[in-house]
Amino acid sequence: MDVLTENFSLYGKGFLGTVELTVYASALALVLGFLMASCRVAPVGSLRVLGTVWVTVLRNTPLTLLFFAVLLGLPRFGLVLPFQLFAVIALGCYTSAFICEVLRSGINTVPKGQGEAARSLGMNFGQTLSTVVLPQAFRSVIPPVGSTLIALAKNSAIAGAFSVTELLGTYKTLNELGYSIIWSFIWIAVGYLIITLTISAVFNVMEKRWGVAR
Predict the structure, then answer these.
(1) Taking a C-beta distance cutoff of 8 angstroms, is the pair 191, 11 a contact?
(2) Cα–Cα distance for residue pair 202/92, rounded to 1 Å
(3) Do 140 and 212 meet the contact criterion of CB atoms below 8 Å apart?
(4) Could you report the per-residue pLDDT of 79-107, keeping only the tens digit for each?
(5) Where is the protein found, in the record's own terms (predicted)?
(6) What's the gap between Cα 24 and its chain centre?
């Protein structure tokens, strides 16, 4: 317990850093994922190509490489931002590709007749998607979206290698202070467990309330 009690502020700072990364990157991933999923099912060919390229590139790019591209590449083009914001961009964009595919799979579960009926009533694509298709698709994608955001929380550990304050990065300071590396990692693991179990609990509540009855 000495590792935790004597370094509680260090653990707390790292824990809050990971929570912030997870919350902000999740918000970005959900917004971008929704936009790209809309593009992938849009009737406009150029939008479908945009969505397909976005998903294909990001899903097949290692996250560490994406961090290098964002944190080290963007400043070369004159975009200078705090490293934490760069980490949010990298995590959010990467996860958005997976959110996009989850949402698209949910959209595909909605019978085509629903969309055709909406169009026959004079609704355009945006109205059909937002008022008819997505409310039904939302019910079936709650569990996989939750799993994707849990993966995002764990992936945030990579940010520590790029001078971003987060939970895993605390082991470097603890190691320099001479604390047991095993116990340092045990308490780090407990911190990640708290975050992931919280996300899981939130989505379990959402699934019970709005999910598809099985």
Answers:
(1) yes
(2) 20
(3) yes
(4) 888 888 999 999 999 999 999 999 999 88
(5) Cell membrane
(6) 9
pLDDT one-digit tens code per residue, 126-175: 788 878 888 888 888 999 999 999 999 999 989 888 878 788 777 677 76
Assess contact for 25 and 95: CB atoms under 8 A. Answer: yes
Closest C-alpha among 101, 81, 87, 89 to residue 33: 101
Q: Which residue has the tokens 């060919």?
A: 45
**What's the CA gap between 171 and 180, in Å, rounded?**
10
For the CA atoms of 114, 116, 118, 120, the dihedral, rounded to the nearest 10 degrees, stands at: -150
For 213, counting Cβ atoms within 10 Å of its Cβ (0-12 exposed, 13-18 middle, 19+ buried), the class is exposed
The secondary structure of 35-47 as a DSSP string is HHHHHHT-S-HHH
Q: What is the DSSP string of 16-75?
A: HHHHHHHHHHHHHHHHHHHHHHHHHT-S-HHHHHHHHHHHHHHHTS-HHHHHHIIIIIGG
